[in-house]
Amino acid sequence: MHRYLNIFNINLKVVDLVSKSERELKDIFSNIDQNVFLNSLKVISAFKEEGLSESDFASTTGYGYNDVGRDKIERIFAKVLGAEDALVRNQFISGTHALTVALFALLRPNDTLLSISGLPYDTLHEIIGIRENPSSLKSYNINYEQIDLVNDDFDYHKILETLKNKKIKLIEIQRSKGYSTRKSISIDKIEKVIKAIREVDQNVIIMIDNCYCEFVENISPLEVGADIIVGSLIKNLGGGIASNGAYIAGRKNLVELAAERLTAPGEGKEVGPSLGANREFLLGLYHAPSVVGSSLKTAVLTSKVLEELGYNVEPKYNDDRADIVQNIIFGNSEDLIKYCEGIQSASAIDAFALPEPTDMPGYDDKIIMASGSFTQGSSIEISCDGPIRDPFIAYQQGGLTYEYGKIALMAAVSKLIK
Q1: Closest by alpha carbon to 209, among 181, 245, 179, 173?
Q2: How far are the Cα atoms of 124, 138, 401 from residue 131, in angstroms, in the given order?
Q3: Please, which residues have CB within 8 angstroms of residue 98's CB and are 6 or more apart in sequence?
Q4: Which of 24, 95, 200, 222 has the greatest count of CB atoms below 10 A from its CB?
Q5: What is the SS3 assignment for 352?
Q6: Above 90 in pLDDT, residue 365?
Q7: CA 68 – CA 379 distance, rounded (Å)
């Protein structure tokens, strides 16, 4: 084993620390395994109920009329996510694209979009118009308001007062923390705030940005009252196999509006060729519960090991989790960069590359990103990134298998303490 450890410059003291941490995490890992089982049961039940067949892997081109497999995939995703309907397409470039389609589909000029989870993720700023862009929602006279979280929970008083005093068309909740220092938002908190909202406004659309959160818990936001959820297939639900795509799921009439924004009014879900993606989408979903479980174990181990070394981490290893993201707060750019270099060095692809902070589309700050993945930008594989700004946080996510995640962690920590 030592020869292989040497290839990645892994310090034997780090191996001992990881082994010790694993022994102390057995109960937490057992709980994760139970959640994997429940979510796997949900997926295989949907496959069985829809009578999935090898013939459903067949591909369509051109307009994509009568794509039986594509339509079956959308029914399966709807069942798994607790939705009336789902739009699951490889025509979505990313989760950000799917969120854009949903927002432009559901909002009209003079409507108001209200974020109740604070400032959205950086890539949404130009979409909303927080940062000026002639193609933003703001350029169509769609208004934006924001209510920040208070002590990592919703500001109930301000939310309810806002709903009582003005007409809000759509409430957006981003569950994962993005590049912020707040905690991610659990299903329990989602359920509580939706109940409070419905006491004041029965008609406001509640949309959840569910990226990084699928299968972390075994309940979907739709099952606690959300109207629409959006996520990427190169994150949790793609299982590391889907090579692109995203989904929008929820109320049937809202999904249809999104479909007509993605394709064309009057065509909606009836068009859109699968181009060979059906098998990838199905196989990815099949693996997704286990892959998310591996990512969670990698995150928990990372939290435990880095805390043992004296670093500030969030969540703590024994905290309940709402997403697969693990924060490591370094407080300086040097350690952030070293850690990302270590993750890259143990990645499957481009392990020889040295990540450097650079400008990226949609971000104000330079970003350091380690992502040696089979699919570009697939953070579910194993990745670590962060903006070069105070307090210099590494946002780690993924691990297709726990073992690969553990190897990457050992390489990163060894680089850090060298």
Answers
A1: 173
A2: 9, 10, 38
A3: 92, 230, 231, 232, 246, 247, 248
A4: 95
A5: coil
A6: no
A7: 30
| Cα atoms in the 13 Å half-sphere on the side-chain side of 279 | 8
Is 417's pLDDT higher than 90?
no
* Band (4; pLDDT cuts 50, 70, 90): confident
Contacts of 238 by beta carbon, 8 Å cutoff, 6+ apart: 232, 245, 280, 281, 284, 285, 288, 378, 380
The residues near 180 (Cβ < 8 Å, ≥ 6 apart) are 118, 119
Paired tokens of 351: 């392990």
Q: Distances in Å between the alpha carbon of 167 and those of 41, 137, 162, 198, 203?
A: 41, 17, 8, 14, 10
Q: Report the alpha-carbon distance of residue 119 to residue 52 in Å, rounded.
A: 41
Outline where DSSP puts E strands in 68-115. Answer: 85-89, 112-115
Question: Which residue in the block uniquely carries the two structure tokens 């003079």?
Answer: 110
**Whole-model pTM?**
0.95
Per-residue pLDDT, averaged over 325-346, amounts to: 95
